Amino acid sequence: MSDALLIREDSNGVCQLTLNRPDAYNSLSMELMKALIATFDEIAEDLSVRVVVLRGGGRGFCSGHDLKQMLGEGEEEYYQCTFDTCSELMQRIVNLSVPVIAQIHGVATAAGCQIVASCDLAIASDKSRFATPGVNIGLFCSTPMVALSRSVSKKHAMEMLLLGDMIGAERAWEMGLINWVVDDEHLEKKTREVADKISASSRKAISIGKQAYVRQIEKPLNEAYTECSRVMTENMMTHDAGEGIDAFINKRKPNWQHR
To answer: Which of 32, 85, 129, 219 has its CA 20 to 30 A from that of 183?
Structure first.
C-alpha cells in the first residue's frame, strides 16, 4: 500500500478515499485531517465525481483523534487547532455537493464514529464496533456529539456519550447510526452496489437535493417547505429534470448531462 496518508481511487463516478494509517487504526492526525480537507475541496470542483466512499485501511475504520500526537504537543492552542480542524473536516463532509458513504470495518470510535455520523450513508461489516468513549478517559466526546445528535435520537446519543460503551453493528443499525449491516466478506460489494446506484443518477439533481436537505433540516416546518418549494422549482429548470421527465414519459433510459 502507498505511503500516502490518504489514498484516492476514481472509477465510473465513484471516488474511493482510504485512510492510510493502519498501524495507528487510522487515527486522525493533524496531517491526515488536512489531507482529507484538501481532497474534499478538490472533489467539490471535480464534476466527474458523483459519489464518495470513505473507508479505512488495515484492521479498522478510524479510532478517533491521534491522542499521542495531541499529548506530545500539550498546549491549549494546539488542542483548539486540532478540534477546529476536525470540525472543519466534518462540515466538509456534510456540505460536500455529492453524497459520502462510510464503509466501516473494525472499530469506528470517538472522532471515527463522528465521521460515520457525518456521512450521508453508512454501510458496516457485522464485525464492526462503534463508540464515543471519551468519558472513560475524562475527555467527553463533545465534538462527536454534534454529529451524533444529528444522526440518532437524543436518548441513543446520550447512551453512547454517557456510557462510552462499545456497541456492535446491529445495535448501531437499531439506533439509526448506520444504514446496512452486511457480512464482512460482502462489505465492499454492498458498498459498491450502493455507490454505483447513486452514480447512475443525475449529479445535478443529487447535489441540489443534498444541499437542500442540510439547509432545511434545522428550519421550522413552514420555512422548510418554503425553502424546498424554491429548490424544486430550481431543480425543474435544470436540463436533467427535463431529460428525466421526458425519458420517464417515453419509457426510455435518460441521458444525464449532469446540468
So the answer is: 32
CA distance 56 to 112: 10
Domain residue ranges of the chain, discontinuous segments joined by +: 6-199, 203-249
Burial track 165-175 (b if 16+ CB lie within 10 A, e otherwise)? eebebebbbeb
Tens digits of residue pLDDT in 21-37 = 999 999 999 999 999 99
Q: What superfamily would CATH give domain 6-199?
A: 2-enoyl-CoA Hydratase; Chain A, domain 1 (3.90.226.10)
> What share of the chain has pLDDT > 90, as a percent?
96
Interval 38-62 mean pLDDT: 97
- Residues whose CB falls within 8 Å of the CB of residue 32, separated by 6 or more in sequence, listed in order: 5, 6, 19, 21, 26, 66
- CATH superfamily, domain 203-249, is Lyase 2-enoyl-coa Hydratase, Chain  A, domain 2 (1.10.12.10)
pLDDT in tens, 52-94: 999 999 999 999 999 999 888 778 999 999 999 999 999 999 9
